[in-house]
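Could you help me review a protein record that somebody else here produced? What it holds is a sequence and that sequence's fold in token form. I have pasted the whole thing underneath without changing anything:
=====
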Amino acid sequence: MNNKIFKIVLVLIVTSTSLIAQEINGLVIDSESELPLAYVNVGVINTPKGTISNDHGEYTLNCKNLPADCKVQISMIGYESQTFGINDLKNKTISLTRKPIALNEITIKWKEIIKEVGTSKTSKTAGVCGWGGTDFGKGHEIGLLVNLGDELVKVKDFNLRIRKHSFDTIVFRLHIRQLENGLPTYELLSESIYLPITKPKGWQKFDLSAYNILLKGKVAVSIEWIKISKVMEKNLIKMNGSKVATPNVLFDMNGKKGTLYTRRGSAAKWRVQEKSSPGFYITIKE
């Protein structure tokens, strides 16, 4: 009799940890306008699980094998992030509130010195970094450590070097983050900056002068996978010895210096690799 009771209790305990739907669908809107917000990050904290909202603010989160007590972070540049228990997201519309921007008046005397900071020299023998698939990389990031010096500088442009990609168009989102204990933390940008890529390879430059980005010190500069359009069959790539070519986007690297940051999900833990960096750099004005 006691054994039967124990088995029933055990079944109830196991069942209670998996009372999550296989998928959760939701909508994210702006709290003031009540309009849908595109490309909002929806990430399960400290895991690779996550996604981003589509052009209509809708998202689908894959919840397979997640514990019932996990937390989901809803975040976007320029908005206050929110955290929910995963079961609290069911049939819920999330309203995000814009962050207030405090503007302090400052006077800067520019020296009119232009510098490239980051990794502007890459090598084909250093390997590549990047993402594969057509949907797998949503919300994933790749970046590097950049030292801007002790004085405020203005960011003029961002540059990245693509080895090869398999799409008609790719859209990335730029991030610049403060560092804490050697890891990227708080976002320093106040609005989303999207980087559309159409050229199949080589250096791509994005003018950022209109955003008036003023920074100093050590920061993490990264790009986040947002979306792709149209796989180009002729540009499929065979990776890691595979005989089957698949869609990928690959960046050239420097394998001798720099610090590489990666994370597989918008709320995942950061990974750090020293003496390695992607071909990303920013041009600054001192």
